[in-house]
């Protein structure tokens, strides 16, 4: 009985407590009930329950906020995504409706005549050939790319290496079988990214691209065929795959040495190491196309384009147009109807995508000082407003 008393009154968590005097069993029970303190485990359990309750309330409030706040306040990213999807559908519908309509012969020429500022942008020979200087005012007194000053011997060698200089039979007349022909000039602008216009682009009679703008891997937005690729040596695609489904590559002469490069590509005679030093980046030494699929752009195209741009700029120097603007003027010589895709720089949003094939931002365009992109945008915008051109991607 004594042992039971001692076991009952001794605090198992405090072994230093003095023993309780002897008492009967009833008294021991009373003492045990009256004087037992909460153990540390009990206190921790109470605190844990309090913390869990507070945490549960916080989580509950957070869940309700996550559900109710988006419903009450529209989310900007989601709204932007819906707007983009709506814009894409508008562009696709516009492009599809244009393609199902019959082609209008002489459409661009008739519209150009209504513009005094652009009436001289027609009947320009597109490709360079022997004897063209005799009956056309080619600006031989201007340096490339607006002329061919100082390039006489190199021009002669390059033309001699071409098997069919001048307008190829495939581009003669108008359209397939001599009918009405439609052109699309595919720019490199980021607006083309996600456009899904590739299948529409492939339906045009003539598809014009510039420099190394890639096709492989971007067929959904940019299409898969190329009729004419305008390029200079440093801008020529390095990958052989980019020349697949390409009918014609056309050299744009920016310096007389570019003609030596073209002759080397055609004749398979490599350039000297000294000549290679004058190119500002690596150049392709072999193009997997036959000589009959290579041409030289008539510099009068660049010259006339530059004159047209001068009306839209405050710069006094002679403007060097981009290949994109020059390609548009070239297309006006080849086709009855001309559309644009991937044109227009969004300079109001510096973080926007500059090109459809890379993540470079719009800020990078500020680094270039050769071209006047604002003047070109005004020039193209006026042609679109006059109905000369159709802007498929709507960024002008």
UniProtKB/TrEMBL annotation:
UniProt cross-references to InterPro entries, sorted A to Z: Glyco_trans_29 (IPR001675), Glycosyltransferase_29 (IPR051142), GT29-like_sf (IPR038578)
Enzyme Commission number(s) from the entry: 2.4.3.9
Region (Disordered), start-end ranges: 1-21
Catalytic activities: a beta-D-Gal-(1->4)-beta-D-Glc-(1<->1)-Cer(d18:1(4E)) + CMP-N-acetyl-beta-neuraminate = a ganglioside GM3 (d18:1(4E)) + CMP + H(+); ganglioside GA1 (d18:1(4E)/18:0) + CMP-N-acetyl-beta-neuraminate = ganglioside GM1 (d18:1(4E)/18:0) + CMP + H(+); ganglioside GA2 (d18:1(4E)/18:0) + CMP-N-acetyl-beta-neuraminate = ganglioside GM2 (d18:1(4E)/18:0) + CMP + H(+); a beta-D-Gal-(1<->1')-ceramide + CMP-N-acetyl-beta-neuraminate = N-acetyl-alpha-neuraminosyl-(2->3)-beta-D-galactosyl-(1<->1')-ceramide + CMP + H(+)
Function: Transfers the sialyl group (N-acetyl-alpha-neuraminyl or NeuAc) from CMP-NeuAc to the non-reducing terminal galactose (Gal) of glycosphingolipids forming gangliosides (important molecules involved in the regulation of multiple cellular processes, including cell proliferation and differentiation, apoptosis, embryogenesis, development, and oncogenesis).
Protein name (record): Lactosylceramide alpha-2,3-sialyltransferase
Keyword field: Disulfide bond, Glycoprotein, Glycosyltransferase, Golgi apparatus, Lipid metabolism, Membrane, Signal-anchor, Transferase, Transmembrane, Transmembrane helix
Pfam families: Glyco_transf_29
Compartments (UniProt record): Golgi apparatus membrane
Gene Ontology terms describing biological process: lipid metabolic process
Membrane topology: Single-pass type II membrane protein
Keyword Membrane: yes
Molecular function terms from GO: exo-alpha-sialidase activity; lactosylceramide alpha-2,3-sialyltransferase activity
Keyword Glycosyltransferase: yes
Any one Gene Ontology cellular component term annotated for this protein: Golgi membrane
